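User: Sequence in, structure out. Go.
Assistant: Echoing your sequence, followed by the structure tokens.
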Amino acid sequence: MLEHQQCPRCHAPNLSSEVICFACGAGLRPRPKRLWRSPPTQAPLLLWAALLAGLAAAGFVGWQVAVWLAGYRFRSTLPSWALPGAGGLLIAAGQIAFAGARRRDRRWWVLKRAPELPMSQAHVGDSVWLRGDLGCDSPLIAPYTTQECAYYRYLLRERDPGEAGWRTTEYESKCVDFTIVGNAELGADAPEARSGSVYVPSGDVLFDAPLYTESFIDSAGTIQARVWALAVGLPVSVCGQLSGQADRPSLTSPDQELPVVATWRAPKDYVALVARKARVAQGAAWAVTILGALALIASLARV
């Protein structure tokens, strides 16, 4: 006999192992009691002191930069419109950088909210993370390798004869449709084995592939090939919205402005990577915008 429990909101019967009600979504588990403790008295003082010190340091550095720019304006032979024009361009570039940072932050928010579920527990219409082995009916062959893959990008670099650097001479990326095959509950000979895989069209996919090979293709060591690839059979994580029929599901974009994500990393590692890139983009946007504002201030200052 299965044990049941009654929902406190709608009184619908639920299994005793359920956490939320299947009918109304109300929580079935009691909330843990919070232990209210008085916060330490010195923590807010230290926080305010650190905040004031940071603002004072930022103001001092900004004032010094503005004074230097104002003095440079009078010492240089640049036209009068050069400094305000540069300030306006920097502020415009900062706003563009803010737009890119907001897109990264939105991607992080969507990817973080998507749960990681086995294929047998995901339903059509859900935005989920799925993890399984990569399969492909018509695989590609990565350049300079014999590896079958669903996605690759490579660049060919040549060493400059008179310099120590490298220059890119060739660059290419290709992808094809692929499937995510679950390791799971169904045998390979079962007629329902197709339900253990999800089809992923390659038209709107953001690929994150590991560096597959990096080698010299000449004996002198002057030409180098670097290949990134998602090889067939590699465990991959894919985030998207399940669509199509229940027996032949496919993954589409989880949001109208965001593509499907296919990565070799674990979902939590990729979400952390996107969060770090969003923070770096926000910091760069703030730095460029503040520098542009200081340039505009210095163009109006008199020293």
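User: And one key feature?
Assistant: The chain has a mean pLDDT of 79.
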